[in-house]
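Key result, reporting period 2: structure in, sequence out.
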């Protein structure tokens, strides 16, 4: 797979990868699946783009980054070799190509999980999204009318999460019933705003606008 890199290398920042404080945080990528032989992409952005990493200890640095949705891992480039962050608990957040990621614990359908979420809004009620990509194996034709389907990565519908006043991060359905449950007594105000602003619940940018509006009323 071709690696497209944007911006010049800032080698002085790589010292954080090798320092004792972050020892064990990064290790080379080992893949059982050859992405070059699979249709589609496992990445949020195919290119490696210069991003910004903030560590829990307060240090920060720049790296070429990209988010692997399929493996739920952050990859970075060093000396033309790909590595993956293997101890993300030491990372506070990552900024790359206008995406703001955190590695955190969250609840999906009453089950606790841990991984990368993209933070979309902050405030009294924060909004997050979990991107999703599945791998589908090659399917052979079952009749003369069918065509074979190659191995492929398929993007799935994202899942949205909320947190109230920095509390637990919990999933919700971005539909009418889901918003009624989420906003409860405040839903009449939300309903009126949805109608007046002509927002669509399935559009991420409209959800962001809705949450920003709600936070402005708190």
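The corresponding designed sequence is given below.
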């Amino acid at each position: 797979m071709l690696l497209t890199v944007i911006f010049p290398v800032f080698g002085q920042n790589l010292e954080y990868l090798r320092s004792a404080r972050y020892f064990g945080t990064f290790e080379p990528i080992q893949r059982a699946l050859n992405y070059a032989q699979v249709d589609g992409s496992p990445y949020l952005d195919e290119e490696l783009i210069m991003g910004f990493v903030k560590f829990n200890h307060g240090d920060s640095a720049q790296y070429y980054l990209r988010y692997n949705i399929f493996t739920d891992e952050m990859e970075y480039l060093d000396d033309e070799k790909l590595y993956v962050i293997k101890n993300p608990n030491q990372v506070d957040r990552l900024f790359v190509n206008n995406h703001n990621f955190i590695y955190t614990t969250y609840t999906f359908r009453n089950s606790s999980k841990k991984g990368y979420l993209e933070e979309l809004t902050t405030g009294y009620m924060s909004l997050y999204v979990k991107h999703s990509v599945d791998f589908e194996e090659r399917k052979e034709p079952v009749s003369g009318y069918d065509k074979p389907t190659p191995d492929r990565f398929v993007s799935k519908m994202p899942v949205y999460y909320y947190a109230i006043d920095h509390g637990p991060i919990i999933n919700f359905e971005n539909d009418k019933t889901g918003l009624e449950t989420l906003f409860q007594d405040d839903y009449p105000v939300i309903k009126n705003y949805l109608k007046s602003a002509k927002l669509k619940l399935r559009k991420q940018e409209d959800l962001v606008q809705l949450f920003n509006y709600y936070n402005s009323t708190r």
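The first strand starts at residue 5 and ends at 6. The chain has one domain: 5-172. This case is discussed further under Risks and Mitigation.
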